[in-house]
Design brief:
Layout (H helix, E strand, L loop, with lengths): L2 H10 L4 E2 L1 H10 L7 E4 L2 H11 L3 E6 L12 E5 L2 H18 L7 E6 L5 E10 L3 E8 L3 H5 L2 E5 L4 H10 L3 H4 L10 H17 L3 E11 L4 E3 L3 E4 L3
Antiparallel strand pairs: 1-11, 2-5, 3-4, 3-5, 6-7, 6-9, 7-8, 9-10, 9-11
Length: about 230
């Protein structure tokens, strides 16, 4: 599945939002570290995907009509075996249809359960004047709470990516607080640069965000991803 075929499919279906599985697969092809994620449209497919990925897994509803998956009971985490995956699939479908009766549900995303790290966000928006602008900041609940983010206009040099990381106010969190390991800033820097290159190669992308990205003492990985295309 290449970028062009994904965009063609999305446009044919009348949507400008790529689903989470599509977004992650395209980012992975671009060299961006993401949690392995597989689309499943049945219980059997979900169980096979979980076996392939390895337990424990997370299962999430995939629907362009449901943006806040957790709010509708569309996310189940820490699933340890096939029986739990089966029960999660059925519960997610029931919860999602009850919460949003008219939603078109593509299936579920089955992904590996990433170990906890420091949560950051990496994203991009296209500014009418400046063009694509990259964003970096503290992720998870901190995005709305603290709004601690930095911006740079593409293209980026390694120095720019490093400055984006160093510019946020919550620097102490990345440096490790209360015995927590410091984040691997080199890995974060490389992740930002890879995303920047991906954006430059695909002007069809209007918005992108990965939240959260887990930053570890060694390495970093995107747990969730969202890509919005230009409207035709």
């Amino acid at each position: 599945m290449n970028f062009e075929s994904v965009v063609e499919l999305a446009h044919a279906e009348g949507r400008d939002l790529l689903n989470e599985v599509e977004a992650k697969q395209l980012l992975a092809q671009a060299g961006v570290p993401v949690v392995e994620t597989v689309l499943a449209s049945s219980v059997e497919e979900a169980k096979l995907a979980a076996e392939k990925i390895g337990y424990p897994v997370v299962v999430k509803v995939v629907s362009a009509d449901i943006s806040h998956k957790s709010d509708v009971g569309g996310v189940k985490i820490g699933l340890a075996d096939a029986e739990e995956v089966s029960q999660a699939y059925q519960a997610i479908m029931e919860n999602s249809r009850e919460a949003v009766p008219d939603a078109v549900i593509t299936g579920v995303a089955v992904q590996g359960m990433a170990s906890e790290g420091i949560e950051v966000i990496v994203g991009m928006v296209r500014d009418p004047q400046f063009g694509p602008v990259m964003m970096f900041g503290l992720g998870g609940i901190f995005v709305e709470l603290l709004k601690d983010v930095s911006f740079r206009v593409l293209p980026l040099a390694e120095r720019d990516a490093r400055q984006m990381i160093d510019d946020i106010k919550g620097q102490a969190i990345l440096d490790g607080v209360r015995g927590q390991a410091a984040a691997d800033k080199t890995a974060l820097c490389q992740l930002i640069l890879k995303v920047g290159q991906f954006i430059e190669q695909h002007p069809e992308i209007q918005e992108l965000d990965m939240n959260p990205v887990f930053a570890y003492a060694e390495g970093a990985v995107a747990v969730d991803a969202r890509i919005v295309l230009h409207r035709e």
